[in-house]
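sry for the spam today, last one i promise. struct tokens for design, 495 residues
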């Protein structure tokens, strides 16, 4: 176990590190982050005994660092320094063998069998075995980095210090290095203290993070507690957003350019262009809209500028609708990455557009509806038959403004309630249960906002935006249902 108590010091009389206190346990990865010049490398130099702190104490396994001989310290701690110059033309194997020095006795000790085994394993683990006989100077920066890591591992330390170890590595080696370190902390109870530049890597791999600023210890805790937007913005003097990693429970920090570099005009609802045929409705914009949708193409959050509602046959059946739809878009020269694409078996000529605009805001709703697979959501579980008919109520909501993520979620709720109310008022029946339907089994929804101009915190029915969306969605769904019913009654061709 390593402990720092009130450690402070630097170079000469200027204190570069001021009062750092922490303990690291066996098997732990401690990430150190902080801006350039905040004292991270200096702190590591104290820990491997390269520099003496002016104040405080460093204790390793209950003994003060100062009581260790250089050789004994090297058995405890190995270092991968920030600067990786190698002045001599050693071969890779020779460099890694240097790591065995603290374990050898006598002046002219030769490598034992154990040394050779450890050296080979270290080269294997870091993927440099195939370079073993090449001079280290002939390797790329990333390869050299891995050789030096192999040397550190050959030391068989309890504690491994790494100073920006991923700097010269491409993303795949960054991941494999950190994966390997994580493995070793589990399997060998290795302790890792790593200065990491990349906040997201630090967040994913560290058990705890130490945040330094101007020599001060600002925070020391779990990544999700330390990586706070306001703290980071202050320390790094940069605009950033904190999101959550989509697949692992870890924060995700994204940088933001200055507002101006991505500025776009507001009043963009007026710039939309509409292209309507029997086969599809396509709304296009020159600008990107921030969207949240359950569409076939472009689901989840995204940035899009083409919106396609495609009519397909009632019997449309496809193993891979994304792929099929992608090919369809390619055919009509639309980039999948720029497009939100929905499908419906409903006739597009029954579609309805409602725009509500006043001093409080500007929204446009587009809806298409067919109700042959209408469902009562409260009874859907009674129906064993899984109905995967193509989405029959599609609702698009365009908003001239900037929404919080909460507002996106609330707009979805508001619009869903409005849709259900329209179905109830039109007495649409679930054919399986003979009760009133609340939707159809494959409905889809899109919320698109220009992300400029007016800002909306909320989209629920208590908010002016929510009220507008409630009415526009209700009216649009009602209108399209009426057209649909009318044709059904006239016994025309209907879905
Ligand atoms: P970090 O690793 O966080 O970027 P460092 O610990 O390397 O920061 O440096 C902290 C401060 O100490 C910086 O202001 C730097 O200029 C200074 N410093 C670093 N190394 C030396 C040195 N060898 N002699 C004098 N000052 C130094
Ligand atoms: Mg540094």
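last one done:
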């Amino acid at each position: 176990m390593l402990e720092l108590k009130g450690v402070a010091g630097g170079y000469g009389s200027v204190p570069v590190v001021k009062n750092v206190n922490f303990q690291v346990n066996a098997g732990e990865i401690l990430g150190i982050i902080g801006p350039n010049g905040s004292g991270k490398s200096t702190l590591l130099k104290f820990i491997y005994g390269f520099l003496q702190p002016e104040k405080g104490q460093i204790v390793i396994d209950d003994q003060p660092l100062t009581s260790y001989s250089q050789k004994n310290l090297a058995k405890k701690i190995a270092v991968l320094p920030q600067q990786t110059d190698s002045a001599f033309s050693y071969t890779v194997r020779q460099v890694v063998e240097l790591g065995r020095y603290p374990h050898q006795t006598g002046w002219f000790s030769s490598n034992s069998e154990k040394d050779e085994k450890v050296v080979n394993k270290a080269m294997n683990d870091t993927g440099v075995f195939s370079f073993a006989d090449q001079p280290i100077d002939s390797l790329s920066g990333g390869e050299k980095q891995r050789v030096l890591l192999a040397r550190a591992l050959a030391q068989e330390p309890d504690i491994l210090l790494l100073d920006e170890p991923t700097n010269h590595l491409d993303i795949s080696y960054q991941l494999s290095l950190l994966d390997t370190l994580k493995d070793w902390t589990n399997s060998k109870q290795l302790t890792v203290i790593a200065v990491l530049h990349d906040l997201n890597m630090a967040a994913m791999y560290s058990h705890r993070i130490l945040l330094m600023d101007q020599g001060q210890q600002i925070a020391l805790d779990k990544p999700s507690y330390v990586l706070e937007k306001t703290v980071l913005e202050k320390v790094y003097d940069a605009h950033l957003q904190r999101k959550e990693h989509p697949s692992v429970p870890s924060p995700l920090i994204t940088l933001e350019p200055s507002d101006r570099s991505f500025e776009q005009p507001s009043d963009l609802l007026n710039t939309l262009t509409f292209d309507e045929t029997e086969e599809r409705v396509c709304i296009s914009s020159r600008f990107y809209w921030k969207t949240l949708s359950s569409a076939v193409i472009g689901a989840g959050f995204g940035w899009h500028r083409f919106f396609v509602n495609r009519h397909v046959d009632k019997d449309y059946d496809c193993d891979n609708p994304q792929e099929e739809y992608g090919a369809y878009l390619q055919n009509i020269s639309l980039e999948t990455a720029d497009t939100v694409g929905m499908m419906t078996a409903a006739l597009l000529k029954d579609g309805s557009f409602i725009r509500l605009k006043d001093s409080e805001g500007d929204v446009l709703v587009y809806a298409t509806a067919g109700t042959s697979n209408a469902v009562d959501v409260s009874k859907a579980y009674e129906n064993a038959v899984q109905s995967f008919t193509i989405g029959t109520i599609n609702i698009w909501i365009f908003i001239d403004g900037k929404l919080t993520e909460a507002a996106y979620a609330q707009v979805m709720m508001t619009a869903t309630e409005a849709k259900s109310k329209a179905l109830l008022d039109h007495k649409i029946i679930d054919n399986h249960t003979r009760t009133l339907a609340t939707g159809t089994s494959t409905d889809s929804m899109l919320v698109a906002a220009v992300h400029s101009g007016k800002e909306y915190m909320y989209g629920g029915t208590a908010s002016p935006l929510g009220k507008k969306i409630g009415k526009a969605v209700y009216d649009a769904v009602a209108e399209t249902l009426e057209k649909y019913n009318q044709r059904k009654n006239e016994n025309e061709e209907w879905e």
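The chain has twelve helices and 24 strands. ok im logging off now
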